[in-house]
Specification:
The protein has 154 residues and is mainly alpha-helical. The chain has one domain. It is 71% helix and 0% strand. It is built from six helices and no strands. Helix 3 packs antiparallel against helix 4. The longest helix has 27 residues. It starts with a helix and ends in a 7-residue tail after the last helix. The mean pLDDT is 97.
Length: 154
């Protein structure tokens, strides 16, 4: 293990802890609603560990999460099939749409599963998906660009 990997690992760990910590505090210590979803944990890997990746671009983070969560909401609310059928259909549709619309963000591929298992409504798109994604992106820009002095977004 070289010094560059150790530094990269520490930066990713600290920045991820801080960002997810803020989302957790907003969710559990304020009356403002839900700001965190499980797939944001995977977003941290790309955003802080590999910010140069095209999958870590702000547009990919925002629209990838929004699009796949939207697909999940549509399937859970409007496709009258058993859950074991709509989960794979929704994941496939979400992945396909992210790729065709050039907003691929691999962590967002799990959003339809989260949405369908949670049986959420369209409000879920506003909070936590949109609100949480905006916070993640703002922190990503500030922490990567101004604290870590990285070129982000590329």
């Amino acid at each position: 293990m070289n010094n560059l990997n150790i530094k990269k690992s520490l930066i990713a760990a600290v920045f991820s802890t801080f960002t997810i910590g803020v989302l957790s505090m907003l969710t559990y210590k304020t009356p403002y609603g839900l700001f965190i979803i499980a797939s944001f944990g995977s977003t941290m890997v790309l955003l802080y560990g590999y910010p140069e990746s095209p999958f870590a671009k702000p547009k990919n983070i925002f629209f990838g999460h929004l699009l796949t969560a939207f697909v999940g909401v549509l399937f859970v609310n409007y496709v009258p099939l058993p859950i074991y059928v709509i989960i794979p259909l929704a994941v496939g549709a979400g992945v396909g749409l992210m790729i065709i619309l050039n907003v691929t963000h691999p962590p967002a591929g799990g959003n339809p599963i989260i949405v369908i298992i949670g049986s959420v409504s369209f409000e879920y798109l506003i909070s936590p998906v949109i609100s949480g994604s905006i916070i993640v992106i703002v922190f990503g820009v500030i922490l990567n660009k101004f604290i870590a002095k990285r070129k982000y977004p590329n």
